[in-house]
Design a protein that fits this description.
heterodimer; A: alpha/beta; 2 domains; 7-stranded mixed sheet; 3-stranded antiparallel sheet; B: 6-stranded mixed sheet; 10 strands; ABC_transporter-like_ATP-bd (chain B); P-loop_NTPase (chain B); nucleotide-binding (chain B); lyase (chain B)
Amino acid sequence: MSTVIPHPTASTATEATQARIEGYNFAYLDEQTKRMIRRAILKAVAVPGYQVPFGSREMPLPYGWGTGGIQVTAAVIGPDDTLKVIDQGADDTTNAVNIRRFFAKTAGVATTDRTVDASIIQTRHRIPETPLTEDQILVYQVPIPEPLRQLEPRESETRKMHALEEYGVMHVSLYEDIAKFGRITRSYNYPVRVNGRYVMAPSPIPKFDNPKMDRMPALQLFGAGREKRIYAVPPYTEVKSLDFEDHPFEVETWEENCALCGAGDSYLDEVIVDDQGTKMYVCSDSDYCRERREAGHVGDGGPNSGGPQ
Amino acid sequence: MSARDPLLQVRGLTHRYGRQVGCRDVSFDLHPGEVLGIVGESGSGKTTLLKCVSGQMQPSEGEVAYRTRDIGTVDVYGMTEARRRMLMRTDWGIVYQNARDGLRMKVSAGANVGERLMAIGERNYGHIRNEAVDWLERVEMDIGRIDDLPGTFSGGMQQRLQIARNLVTKPRLVFMDEPTSGLDVSVQARLLDLIRGLVGSLGIACVVVTHDLGVVRLLSHRLMVMKGGRVVEQGLTDQVLDDPQHPYTQLLVSSILPV
């Protein structure tokens, strides 16, 4: 049997950080598991958009809460990294807060709310509005990695369809949208083609974020814990949203601006503010909104406030 | 190679399910525009034979060769799977007995017809839509139901939709497995009329598997009679039906209920 070589990350981490709790390996997963996941990640980066099976581990939180994303993050994180976690664009939601605290405890890494300060960003449902750089890694939590699943329930068949580039059914689903509603109504998890080859599910991000994936300078990693798949989009890779010539891909637009920061270029959440149905629109990316407000931008404050708060 | 060469050549085709024999040593040629009927009782190996020659199931022994449009005659099971599946969804059509096997039940009639076009790279919604309308008209379906799900259609309409879905890429060879069984006689008659008209006007070669001698009398030029996995008699349809030589064929012909 081969001897287990101690991983450099593990030893340096132990020396570097005091804050993390005892009894766990650096970043929770054992080193062999991390190596296995890293191998899957390398393969995924080598074949953009291809779903690489991996031995997903039991994590201390339920499936659907980001087990895939956490395992990917645990495999790539080092003691010098700064982690940001967002859920629906916000840093202060339950899922985001707990995953951030999880890594603060098990890896002792620095965490941040600021997109520009983070070296690893784990996300669910959004891509930050602030453009990412080559020094950053974006980790997506993915519930259903297979874009063809709704159309073809057999795994053996979907694998064959990917292998043989049989992607006609994907357009069948878009055709159905247009036939029924006059336009493509799919608004999240909008299928994309990566590097002109694999059709990929971009995880449930709004289609508003699809153009950001195209030729993004940051490395994009996707982890699906329950489905045991990892896939990736390397930096500066073409990511094209599927469409028809006469019904081209379009992103959502809003007539309103953000009520807090006045942004007209970000993804807006509708917030109901009373029981009369009054509503306001605010940036879903909480860091982007705060940065703009700190820089002096002011929205109209929403219907009830009479001014910015 | 010329236009007179057979489109499909089957040689010594045998398929076994373990110790059970599905079909044994079947050979035939099919020429462009020709309709071949295969009849026999249940369990005689008709469907096994059809699956083997239509690329859906690799036979235990024997060869199936197809004359393609571009690269000459090729062994159907010798080519890559990618190429075989491409062939099956462009140059071939398969009409199933049960429309649910051949249709996508969760998408509309129009999407069902358009699927093959999208699979070969058509990316213009307007074109796909027009083509779907055109084909629904040709199989005599109500255009107003183009956006309805196949599940809301009657059995006869589902079969029509299946035919339209297969013919949209203008195939040269169509396989039909009991296309009219399970339909009532008046619907059967109209569907047969339609199939005969389309096959004749488009010059499509057909292999029709059925247990209904009326269907083969109406559709097919040549006839093969199967029993226990073997072909016991073959020849021109009228010849075989009007002057059956093999005892089993004689039994089959005499079993037709007079009206």
